[in-house]
Design brief:
With about 375 residues, the chain is of the alpha/beta class. About 35% of the residues lie in helices and about 20% in strands. The strands form 2 sheets. It has a 9-stranded mixed β-sheet. A 6-stranded parallel β-sheet has the order 3-2-1-4-5-6. The protein is globular, with a radius of gyration of 20 Å. The chain starts with 5 loop residues before the first strand and ends in an 18-residue tail after the last strand. The mean pLDDT is about 95. Its cofactor is NAD(+). This is Putative dehydrogenase. Pfam families: GFO_IDH_MocA, Glyco_hydro_109_C. One of its GO terms (molecular function) is hydrolase activity, acting on glycosyl bonds.
């Protein structure tokens, strides 16, 4: 049975939550029915925005226990969590226990224990836990994912991902403090998410162990990961130096190479290296998947961030049709656990640290990632 609409309860209407609320004006078959926040004035602004976009006002829940009351509401299908990192798991677990599917901002968890809580609760309740990793829906990343699925790179051997972004300290002070106090990579999923799909992590292969180092001063973290089948990954985080924005998006295979940053680059076998506009033109040939088409749909609608539109549009499509989600709870756990494990390695002279198998062995039989 196809659902007419997905009824959403949004927890947290600060900066990120308001952007989500505004973006859902463009998402068909979904409605923000309720909002929860610590502060009443934020809820007032949320309803003002809904009215301004011609949408119905949402039911308001305010105060410290507001999020719980929202999770308990009977007329909600999906709880969408846009709060601080430390509250993500607690809220997601409670929402699933109340029979709700969950979409949670990145990272979904900050410790390995929290990752297991997400996995166990999702398995026990049968509810979805979708981590909103928008970088998986980057235009170039989706195109190169299709190239990989068509065999253009041959067998993948190595990938690199990063979050290199000079933050405005006055605007993101809490984030900078978190990075400096953490000592590892507390924000690993932007770089790792697209790689997880490319390498079919927990779908025929899985992360095995990592080693991590953090520079002093500067707080630049570099983490090296290896999969059970021998693939290598470089993951980097730098929000403290004046480097240009960069997520790397590097793919190395036996037949080809790709990298988005700093300049889009493609090469296959012994053919000419394609750089810049030439690489982007070649990539257009592979912009055929459903998420790619939704990326263009968002672009044509004038949505500020096409990656987010494609991500949310896919989420609602899959929920309405009862399909497996693009990002499952095992993705959320496998990508998020790097936060604590990189911290442990970096603080202990970069010793190797094992990465848990959140599928409990099922990764060996799970089919490759696909868009349903």
């Amino acid at each position: 049975m196809i659902l007419d609409s997905i009824r959403i309860g949004l927890i947290g209407v600060g900066q990120r939550g308001m952007k989500t609320l505004e973006r859902y004006a463009f998402i068909r078959h979904a409605q923000i029915c309720a909002v929860a926040d610590l502060y009443e004035e934020r809820l007032t602004m949320a309803n003002y925005q809904l009215r301004a976009q011609g949408r119905k006002e949402a039911k308001k829940f305010s105060g410290k226990e507001a999020w719980k009351k929202l999770c308990e509401a009977k007329d909600i299908d999906l709880i969408y969590i846009c709060t601080d990192w430390n509250s993500h798991t607690q809220m997601a677990v409670y929402a699933m226990q109340q029979g709700k599917d969950v979409a949670v901002e990145v990272p979904a968890a900050t410790t390995v224990e929290e990752c297991w809580q997400l996995v166990d609760t999702s398995e026990q309740t049968g509810r979805h836990c979708f981590m909103t990793e928008n970088c998986c829906y980057d235009r170039f990343a989706l195109a190169t994912l299709e190239m990989q699925r068509e065999g253009r790179f041959g067998e993948l051997t190595h990938c690199e991902g990063a979050y290199i972004h000079t933050l405005n300290i006055s605007e993101h002070d809490w984030m900078e403090k978190t990075y400096k106090q953490h000592g590892g990579n507390p924000y690993p999923t932007h770089g790792l998410g697209p790689i997880g799909w490319l390498l079919n992590l927990h779908r025929g292969d899985r992360l095995d162990y990592l080693v991590s180092i953090t520079s002093q001063p500067g707080q630049i973290n570099t983490t090296l990961l290896k999969t059970v089948k021998g693939k290598s990954i470089v993951l980097q985080l730098d929000v403290c130096t004046h480097r240009p924005y960069n997520r790397l998006q590097t793919i190395c295979g036996t037949k080809g190479f790709s990298q988005k940053y700093p300049v889009p680059t493609l090469q296959f076998d012994e053919t000419k290296v394609l750089i810049g506009d030439d690489a982007l033109e070649e990539a257009k040939i592979y912009e055929t998947s459903d998420p790619s088409l939704r990326w263009f749909q968002g672009h044509n609608l004038g949505v500020p961030n096409e990656m987010n539109y494609a991500m949310d549009s896919r989420l609602i499509h899959c929920l309405r049709h009862g399909l497996p989600l693009d990002i499952d709870v095992y993705d959320a756990a496998e990508w998020s656990c790097i936060a604590e494990l990189s911290q442990i390695s970096a603080q202990e002279e970069s010793r190797p640290v094992e990465i848990p198998d959140f599928t409990r062995g099922r990764w060996k039989e799970n089919p490759p990632h696909k868009f349903f």
